Amino acid sequence: MARIQGCTDIPLNEIGRDQARAVAEMISRESGEWDAIWASPLSRALDTARIIADHLRMEPIHTDSDLQERNFGAAEGMNRDRRIERFGNGPIPGAESWEEVRQRSLEMIEKIRSIRPDQRVLVVTHGGVINSIMSHLSGGEIGPGKTIITNASAHLIAWEGAWRIQWFNRTADQRAGITSRRRDSSISSMRDLASPSLKL
Q: pLDDT tens digits, residue range 20-68?
């Protein structure tokens, strides 16, 4: 049974590296050039970003702690059964709330948009961050407890006076859709429609 990784800095394994190379090829094939790349500083996301950046010949990689995964506090490293046995459905000591994750995630994409207006930006981050953003943008149709982000998946949001979801959960071997597999790090991409270019 999978264990909660959270903000514990677990390195990317070889399966994750293969997934990162596959999605880098997909991005290269389908999306053209990028202007900038941001990543969570956790090594499983940063290593994914490095593989993608090398493939796309991009540098530098900007990192920000607001892109890291949810802190699950005392439940970090536990599997689901152990977490329920220990804490039930009650609060977990030291855990970050989903509202806190949502707030910092939304502030982060606005920060990037203010730094890189009218540019094509690739963001490599984690399932909890992406689900929190998507929950807000979808009015709760997508989000924690409802959808699971696929390993090495890509998601497109676009600025049209407000953020809009263009598609969700695309991987190198499938098109957009809702899935039931966990992930180590994911790719979230955004664009400002004032730019003439489209992005994956």
A: 999 999 888 876 788 999 999 999 999 999 999 999 999 999 999 999 9
Asked: is 14-192 a CATH 3.10.20.310 domain? The reply is no
**Amino acid in position 188:** S
Query: What angle, rounded to 10 degrees, do the helices at 14-31 and 43-56 form?
Result: 40
